[in-house]
Amino acid sequence: MKQKLLKTCLIAILSVFVIAGCGKKEVKPVAINEKTDKCEICHMAVKDNEFATEIILENGKSMVFDDIGCMYKWLKENSDKKVANSFVKDYDSKEWIEAKKASYVYDKPIKTPMAYNVISFTDQKDAQSFIDQHGGSLLTYEKLENHSWEKNEEMVKEMKEKMKMKDGHDGMEMEHSDDSH
Questions:
Q1: What is residue 162's predicted lDDT score, i.e. its pLDDT?
Q2: Cβ proximity of 54 and 62 under 8 Å
Q3: pLDDT score, position 174
Q4: Mind spelling out the 3-state secondary structure of 95-154?
Q5: Which residues pair with 120 in a beta bridge?
């Protein structure tokens, strides 16, 4: 009887470890390589800055974007793909955070690489502090799914003018502004 009870307990304990081991593996962002990484949507160079975003598919493939608007455009165009996780950069620290956990600020004057005018923050209080200083609207991850994702055409026009003014520019890279507002 004791042997049967011991055997049953060992099987139960092993089962718990096996089931726990089969849980989802934590998906982490892949570092940006500024020399080679290009945005999946606009094909511009991706800088390792506060505007970079990333998607990791369930098959392990990672894709980077130079603007959160490009990431959302890709998600809309590829709704059949299985996304394991998505990441954005905190506007202040430039550290990766899970997109679902971030708070966002939208304001037309915010300069982003592709003029979608949305920036991300780890903490809602930091996002609110930015709004208090510069203006804008606070958005959650859920609200981003219903965001219009229209480019600021005035800003796009300004960026194109800057590109034309650059001597010897081959038209393949767009200058990303370091000042965001």
A1: 82
A2: yes
A3: 42
A4: CEEEHHHCEEEECCCCCCCCCCCEEEECCHHHHHHHHHHHCCEEECHHHHCCCCCCCCHH
A5: 104
**How far apart, in whole angstroms, are the C-alpha atoms of residue 64 and residue 181?**
23
Distance in Å from the first CA to the final CA of the chain = 75
pLDDT in tens, 38-94: 999 999 999 999 999 999 999 999 999 999 999 999 999 999 999 999 999 999 999
| Token representation of residue 126 | 């930091």
Distance of CA 83 to the CA centre of its chain: 12
Angle at 69 between CA 63 and CA 70, to 5 degrees: 35
Amino acid present at 148: S
Mean of the pLDDT values across residues 10-28?
Answer: 54
